[in-house]
Write a structure and sequence with these properties.
phosphatidylinositol binding, 10 strands, mainly beta, single chain, Immunoglobulin-like
Length: 154
């Protein structure tokens, strides 16, 4: 069922971020078994700044998209995140032959990309590079993670 956490209590002058994970585009979307996304907030050294959360398994798969439509509550006020922090989204799925859950790809959003409304972010090849040093795009095709951001400010 995932490990989603509730929204933090609001604080005057502080901003909370809800991210709705709409869908992810993958060329083999239909073949992914029990896909879900792990969301984490990391500093430049790859250290967790908030608890890691997993979405429930995707709602449906159609064509080249895996649909989630899940809200993630980021567990820290935006103003309290360190400079250079980023929000990571790791797309994971079950591999029956190997009997384990594998990370297929990842995406991330940097602090300057936090603004209300829709955003699409590029997908990168695994392994997940939390330090963002050696990034390789997953594919030349235009496949993205589709998100919608909601900012809550007191």
């Amino acid at each position: 069922p995932g490990t989603l956490l509730p929204r933090l209590p609001s604080e005057p002058g502080m901003t909370l971020l809800t991210i709705n994970i709409e869908k992810i585009g993958l060329k083999d979307a239909g073949q992914c078994i029990d896909p879900y996304i792990t969301v984490s907030v990391k500093d430049l050294n790859g250290i967790d700044l908030t608890p890691v959360q997993d979405t429930p398994v995707a709602l449906r798969k159609e064509d080249t998209y895996v649909h989630f439509n899940v809200d993630i509550e980021i567990q820290k006020h935006i103003e309290k995140l360190t400079k250079g922090a980023a929000i990571f989204f790791e797309f994971k799925h079950y591999k029956p032959k190997k009997r384990f859950t594998s990370t297929k790809c990842f995406a991330f959003m940097e602090m300057d990309e936090i603004k209300p409304g829709a955003i699409v972010i590029e997908l990168y090849k695994k392994p997940t590079d939390f330090k963002r040093k050696k990034l390789q795009l997953l594919t030349k095709k235009p496949l993205y993670l589709h998100l919608h951001q909601i900012l809550h400010k007191e």
